[in-house]
Specification:
Length: about 290
């Protein structure tokens, strides 16, 4: 029997807390503000940004979408990030991907003030995370840990295997798992015999961006699987990096796509924004 590790109730609880904190900050004269910088015409990206904006509005966070267009130069994107970092009404900044050709995400993200870096994109934030120092973690990576905690999955001493080594999800997820005393293995495209490695996992995190890569041959019967993938299908739906039909009935637990990591990620971005707003007033710390 495979348990469904949904993120919907968890996300709803986080959003409720965020709404209460946002109301307190607004009443005290500091309405939380979030800005999303967009430089793409990608429709899946546009859908994600709209979902963030709707969620922010429902929790009392002012969200502005700075659409620079798909032809924006790196200089224009950097200037927008610099301006937002100086704006006292903006407490959270997200640089949405994909970016135009020639624009390097890590280079541009360095322009986001770490105090406003609610998605842990600035290399300084990632470095502090790796060193175990206070910083906003990338929201998707943090969502993996928060979701596992919510469903009572013990991490101390567990063997966690992360498939994917991106700076956005794979690497920060590995660091967060290490901080929780898991023994961590990171797999990538040059890993020899991926299935042999993943079958040793107590907790398996699939974050590689390849539709249904992980199948029954990759998993042990008692493993907990977190599927971070959000791969669009031809009919407008989403599938994860895990072949859910293949592993269901074999693994102990599986996050659904959609409805697993995704809603928790969005809720944490909003949580980080109110935390940044509180910190700007001296009312709280992250």
């Amino acid at each position: 029997m495979t348990a469904t590790l949904s993120g919907k109730d968890l996300a709803a609880g986080i959003r409720a807390d965020v709404a209460a904190q946002a109301a307190e900050l607004t009443a005290a004269g500091t309405p939380p503000g979030l800005a999303v910088v967009v430089a793409t015409a990608d429709e899946s990206s546009a859908w994600y940004v709209r979902s963030i904006a709707r969620a922010a509005e429902k929790t009392g966070i002012a969200c502005s979408v700075v659409d620079l267009g798909a032809a924006a130069t790196p200089e224009r994107i950097r200037a927008a990030l610099d301006a937002l970092s100086e704006d006292p009404a903006v407490h959270g900044i997200i640089l949405q991907t994909p970016l135009p050709a020639g624009a390097v995400f890590e280079d541009l993200a360095a322009s986001i003030d770490p105090a406003n870096d609610v998605d842990g994109a600035n290399p300084l934030s990632l470095g502090r995370l790796a060193a175990g120092l206070p910083a906003f973690a990338p929201a998707t990576a943090q969502a993996v840990l928060v979701l596992l905690d919510h469903h009572g999955v013990s991490l101390a001493g567990a063997h966690a295997v992360v498939v994917g080594r991106s700076n956005v999800v794979g690497k920060p997820t590995a660091h967060l798992l290490l901080q929780r005393d898991a023994t961590v293995t990171v797999c990538h495209r040059r890993t020899k015999d991926l299935a042999e490695v993943t079958r040793t996992a107590d907790v398996l995190v699939a974050a590689v961006g390849r539709p249904e890569l992980i199948t029954a041959e990759h998993v042990a019967e008692d493993v907990v699987v977190v599927d971070v993938g959000t791969n669009p299908t031809a009919d407008g739906g989403l599938v994860g990096d895990v072949d859910a039909g293949s592993v269901t009935g074999r693994v102990a637990g599986l996050t659904p796509v959609p409805g697993g990591v995704g809603p928790v990620t969005t809720a944490l971005l909003l949580q980080h924004t109110v935390q940044a707003a509180a910190r700007s007033t001296g009312r709280g710390t992250r």
